[in-house]
Write a structure and sequence with these properties.
Chain lengths: 334, 265
């Protein structure tokens, strides 16, 4: 689920960064308004570190022999509330990307959006909180935890699909990609949901007061019928998971084509042969790859490219060797 | 358990590296952050069929790792973590993008293969560039810099504290897993039916710890006001590094150096 830098284009990455920065700014303001941020900070930090530690703990999935671990968003939101949970999730993702290479740095915006904003600022206030505010029992807590995690993960996974496709890095058709991602994340979501629910159930039975902030405070959902909301989310999930992919299969990689068209258009001229070739293969599209092996006059550049690449490698190796030799000498003389 | 331990070691290793005193370590954190971001943007902005033009960026990795005295296997291990999803996308490109680009020693090279190599190269470069920043800049200087860039205080404090507590809570988790294994008759991990109690217990312990931490901090005059610390001025060496870093990132982006080099022959 963590997206890497290599899979995002600068524009998609930048746009997602802006969106997530906005959400983080909103959450900071919300916390300042609550005026409990000072007391809450250590709790947020420790619970954030807890999510890290808890992710190390695997559990055996019955019947499969494989193991899974917990996710974060809904678990954090249930304990800390939406805005605080988003900040904590953002920090977790930053630490993961900086120190563990789990998710890219430019991709942080996308990752924070998919795994933080969606569960903490969308699912939690619209679904989780109003459902429990109506009546708080351990059964309801279990049910809504599983539902929230599953829906959150489905939307998040769909976000990954959209962002990757919009970046134009993958050649996977939209439908195939979506059909791969959604079911996998349905299974993961169910597992994560069950674990989140069982953690909540345990905590609720031992210290029910921890869920006080879920029950207190204003709720967006109070004047909206909850049933309608659940139905709306269920429909949304269905549309996302199945409907769109079915529709898209009628127009295979429609998104890709349009993007390719926009990018390819500006480079149509001066590449006659390649253009004709790609046109004959692809029919209507303006698919015109910038292979840097074949830009301009074809073969000549490709040979130059290969020789040059070998030279660059050799140069890099030589510099590396030289620096390490110098360092060794320094150590010996010192 | 070894995996939990190794994650913790990874964190401590990076911290040890960042405490070094090489020329790169001594640079101002701001210029290191800016050059890193510039490199990332330039690398990511290449299209999916770029291979040769990406290679010169390896020079930065090699030079920085060399000067900072960081072994290559640290980079290698981290690339492995980032790889699976990138490989999935890259390999699927091989199946869907079969247009022949050119032939090399009788072997046909398809566009999908080129894009697979491009994705792998980008992954290696992006991961290394970030690793270099973290391995030569202590987290304290990074967060100080973030404060100076007017990132909200609560966010920076949260980042610092979470980072500190990861080590503590991982030790907690390791202790719990050890205790579990000693009593579970050879089972390695908790069953699904036990996981709620197990993780829930860790959560409650963490929350109690947070309470104690808060009290301890309060006793030491902690408050969440915007802190203003003195700005460290940029030295000449910082400007030089910034200039060279930025210029090289941009030049490599717009000039295909390997093709130029190869063209000389």
């Amino acid at each position: 689920m963590h997206m890497a830098d290599a899979l995002l284009s600068t524009s998609v990455g930048g746009a997602m960064c802006l969106a997530s920065a906005g959400a983080i700014g909103y959450s900071v303001l919300q916390l300042k308004k609550e005026d409990v941020s000072e007391k809450k900070l250590p709790l947020m930090a420790v619970v954030g570190a807890f999510v890290f530690a808890a992710q190390m703990i695997n559990f055996t999935i019955p019947g499969t022999g494989s193991s899974g671990h917990i996710g974060g968003g809904i678990l954090l939101a249930g304990i800390l509330g939406g805005p605080a949970a988003l900040l904590t999730m953002a920090v977790i993702l930053i630490v993961q990307s900086l120190f563990f290479a789990d998710g890219g740095v430019l991709a942080l915006g996308a990752n924070i959006f998919n795994m933080g904003v969606i569960p903490c600022l969308v699912i939690y206030p619209l679904l989780f909180k109003p459902f429990l505010q109506k009546a708080m029992t351990s059964t309801r807590l279990t049910i809504i935890s599983i539902i929230s995690v599953v829906i959150g993960l489905q939307i998040g996974a769909f976000g990954v699909v959209l962002q990757t496709l919009a970046s134009g890095i993958t050649e996977l058709p939209f439908a195939t990609f979506a059909l791969l991602m959604q079911p996998i994340h349905l299974a993961i979501g169910l597992m994560e949901g069950i674990v989140t629910a069982s953690v909540f159930a345990f905590v609720y039975s031992v210290r029910p007061e921890i869920f006080a902030n879920v029950l207190n405070g204003s709720s967006l959902g109070m004047n909206i019928s909850l049933k309608k909301l659940v139905v709306a989310f269920a429909i949304l999930t269905l549309v996302v998971g199945g409907g769109l992919s079915l529709m898209a299969s009628e127009y295979p990689d429609g998104l890709e084509w349009s993007i390719e068209h926009i990018i390819g258009d500006t480079e149509l001229e001066g590449n006659g042969t390649l253009h004709a070739l790609s046109e004959s293969i692809q029919g209507v599209t303006a698919f015109l790859p910038d292979y840097d092996f074949a830009d301009g006059d074809g073969k000549g550049t490709s040979v130059a490219g290969i020789i040059g690449s070998i030279l660059t490698f050799a140069l890099a190796g030589a510099i590396g060797l030289l620096i390490s030799l110098c360092k060794k000498k320094e150590k010996v003389t010192a | 358990m070894a995996d939990v331990r190794s994650k913790l070691d990874n964190l401590y290793t990076l911290e040890q590296f960042s405490a070094g005193s090489s020329a790169v370590h001594r640079l101002h954190p701001l210029v290191k952050i800016l050059v890193t971001v510039a490199y990332l943007i330039c690398i990511v902005s290449f299209d999916r069929y770029t291979v040769t033009a990406l290679l010169p960026y390896l020079l930065y990795v090699v030079i920085m790792l060399g000067i900072a005295d960081i072994p290559y296997n640290v980079v290698f291990k981290r690339v492995l973590i980032a790889l699976p999803f990138c490989l999935f996308i890259g390999i699927s490109n091989m199946f869907f993008d079969r247009q022949v680009v050119f032939e090399l020693f009788g072997m046909t090279v398809t566009a999908g293969m080129v894009s697979l190599i491009s994705i792998l190269l980008k992954t290696i470069l992006c991961v290394s560039v970030v690793l270099i920043l973290i391995a030569v800049t202590p987290i304290a200087s990074i967060s100080k810099q973030l404060r100076q860039l007017r990132v909200p205080e609560i966010f920076v404090s949260l980042l610092e504290m979470t980072y500190r507590y990861i080590g503590v809570l991982l030790e907690d988790a390791i202790a719990m897993i050890t205790a579990y294994r000693l009593r579970s008759n050879g089972r390695k991990w908790p069953k699904l039916s036990e996981i709620g109690f197990f993780i829930g217990q860790l959560l409650l312990r963490s929350m109690d710890r947070a309470e104690r931490v808060y009290n301890a901090m309060k006793c030491r005059c902690y408050s969440l006001q915007d802190r203003v610390s003195k700005q460290i001025p940029l030295k000449l060496s910082d400007w030089v590094f910034f200039g060279i870093g930025l210029a090289s990132a941009i030049v490599f982006r717009f000039v295909n150096v390997p093709v130029l080099l190869g063209g000389l022959f």
